[in-house]
Structures are given as C-alpha cells and as structure tokens.
Amino acid sequence: GSEVYLSWDISSETDFKCYVLERDSSIITAISTRNTSFYIDTVSPDATYYYEISVKDTSDNISPSSSKNIFVMDVSVLPPSDISISAPSSGRKIKLNWKNPPELKGIRIYRSLSSATVFSVIISTLIPPTTYYTDKNLTDAVTYWYGVRAINYLEGREFFYIEESTNTDVYCEIPQDTLKPQTPQNFKITISTKSSSFLLTWEKVILNENGSTCDDLAGYEIWWTYTGTFIDDDLYKIFPSSDDVSAVHSNLSEGTTYYYKIRAKDVAGNFSAFSSTFSRCYQKIIEVAVKSDDIIVSEFTPNGDGIADTLEISFDLNEPSNSVEVSIYTSTGGVYEVIFSSSSLPQGNYSVSWSPTEISDGSYFIKVFISSTEVFSKKILVKGALQPVEEFNNFPNPFIISKHGNTNLRFKLPQPVNLKIAIFNSVGMLVKTWKIKASELSTYENPSDSGYYQIPWDGKNDSGHRVSSGVYICYIKGQGIDKKTKMVIIK
Fold this sequence. Notes:
The chain is an all-beta fold. Helices cover about 0% and strands about 50% of the residues. The protein has one helix and 38 strands. The strands form ten sheets. Strands 9, 10, 12, 13 and 14 form a five-stranded antiparallel sheet that branches. Strands 24-30-29-26-27 form a five-stranded mixed sheet, with no helix packed on it.
C-alpha cells in the first residue's frame, strides 16, 4: 500500500485526553500522548481521502475538527531494462546503457570495486530520456561493479518522498586502453647552438591511430644509433615528456653520422608505430677563422700603416639561423662594438671586416652569437693601435709671429708614446720637425691638466729662418697615432 503522512501542531488544551483522527468520517485512531504531532496512515494508491483531526478533553468534549482532502499517488517504479556495460578501446572509461521504464523521474547509478562491498552512489539523478552514462577517469586493468536503478518521487510543500526500484542485479567491466597514439610527424634534425649537440624537433601528437583525440599521451621515445642499427637499450634512447616538442642530443662527435627514429607512448603503455629513420652527420653549427692579411692571427696592429690594419672574420654557417651577431668585447666583458648583425641568415659562407681606429692597446674578444647564444669566442691582442689624439690644434691660430712670438701645438694622449711632429707648407715642403721620445714627453706636459701636452713653435724652420706667411699643415705621428691640423701663419 501507500502511506499518508499527517502532521499537526501540539494541542495546548489543559485537560487534554487525546487526538482523534478520522478518515472519510470513520475514526482510524485516538492518540493519547499530547506531544505526538504526526501519524502515518497506510492506504491504497490512486484515490482521494478526507482526513479530520480533533482534540478530546477529559470530559469527552470534542473540539472543532481540522480537515484536509488528499489524493494518494502511486510512486512505485519499475527497474530499468536491457542494462549493458562496455569498456571503450581508449581505456579509463566504462559506458552503461539501459532502457527507461515508464513512470520514472530519474536514474541512479551505483559503483563498487567488488560485488561484495557496499556500492556508492556516483550519479544521484540522471533525468530521462537519458539512457546511457560514461564513467570517466578510471584506472585501467581494475574491475568496476555497477548497479542501475530507477527512481520516482513525490514532492510537496513540506515533504519530499523518493521511491527507488528494487532490482539488485550488478554488472562489471575492466577498462583497458588498447588504442595506440599516432606516429609523431615532421621530425627534424638541426645543429644546436649548444656544443656538440643536435636539436631534434617534431609535432605534438594530439590524435590516436583511429583519429580520436589522444588525451592520455605520456611522452615519446627517440631511438638513436651511429652504426645504422638500432638496439633496444635505454643508453641509446631519449625520453621527452608529453609536453615536449624538442630534445637536445649532446656529446656528439664531429664527422659522425647519427640515425634517429621516434614514437609516441600513452599512459596505458601503448606505443605508436615508429617514424621513418632520419640521419645527419654532425658538424659544428659555425666554423670561424680570424685572419689578417690572409694569416690566422691572435694579435694585430691597426696603426694605419696599411699593414695588418684589418681583421677578416670569416665563418661557415652550417645551419640556417634566425639571429647571428658578431661583436667585439673588452677584456672586462663589455661590448666594444657590434660589427655584424642579421635577424635571418641562410646556411653559407660569410666574412666580416674589422678595422678599428683610435682603439686602446690591450686584450679584446671576438664573439659570435646565434639566437643570443655564444657559439664562438677568441682573444685578440691589439698592439700599437692608432691612438686617439684629442684636441690636436695650435693656439693662437692664426699665428702672428711679430705679435705672438710663439704658437703652442696642443694635444692629448691616453699614454706616452714616441712621436714625430712635422709641419709642411701649402706646397708640401717640410719646414719643421720634432722627434720626441715617450720618456721625454713629460717635459711638454701641461702641469695643470694631466695627459695634455703643448709644444711651442716660434715660426722658424729647421734652418732657423722664419717661415713665410701662409697656410701650413702640422702632422703628429707615432706608435698608432696619425693626426693633422691646419694653421695660418702671418709674419
């Protein structure tokens, strides 16, 4: 039968005797406990009933009754039929199918790891017309047990009653992934900017061999050999993760050919088919030669004399590169000069010239960068370089001999060197010469300004005669120094 739940407020009658309950004008019970506030009546379903409740006191006086009409509905439900269970080849899933019975409000699914243990509800309500459910994120090779039941319910303002089908049959299945991932595509071998290394690249595997989404990729295996014959040994394998699309193979020998093939692996241990075999002979990504006058050098003298004034930095680029830079660095690690830079450079042979002027003697480093990675460095010793001469001039200029008496040849040197100063007239005739040793320069140093020198000239030539009025050119030369200035002489 069906049940009707009756409830009321507790009576405050001082001489309470009992509650009197009637159904369809017939007394069904009398309850003598004042604090009782409910009663469950068993009736037949699919009928309307008329209930009344009143209070009787100790004198058998009966209060006016409270009444209520109620229709009793049958909420019993039949179990689902044609229940089936299957494990897709992709693994980690189990699919349940069934047919819904009539007069139901939903489906409830139970699961357990044993037919003998308590089943837990994994889905409390699947609303019809749903007739299947896929249980995901399971563990492969584990047996799962399921129960599928129909539910019906009756909902009121102050109550909610659920009826569940009574079928107890259970179903089991073992998820097992047998689906292989696709073979990795677009495998490439390029020379790495890392020393003695290849950079191996490929496209990420996103599909299984049947075209479905590969959502359980575990990683990759790259097999390599230098003999041409692959062996199943972890010493000759590289194991990138599922997120990787590149790997670096290091400690390679120059001039040796290496062979590679790649396959993908999923969480269940299914391997894809191997890719084709790819091979490449290892050579450095760049070969650099530093020469001066066609001779490989580690020092040079850019003093402007036309001999070994220029360094030729030639390089063979064995791999197309996105960014190539050739720079000169000081011995303290700072950039002295960028002499070549390209954002994209094809494989080929290249040459860069460096002819510095006014550079200090000392150690410098020629560095080559590919994609911001240093791939070459060589120390170069600069000796006898063309020295910077600051403010080489004369004062006063114009020089009026009769008025000024002397003009001062003024210049600044970073360091004392042997010097030759010569004055020529407008037709190129030498009129005056000074030869000053480095040890003698202190005689001409400006005492108020270190590093500055001044040499007085009285306007006479080497024979002691005053020169004629006109325009003259004064040269200063020495170890790595070559500078000139123009002066005007007036007698």
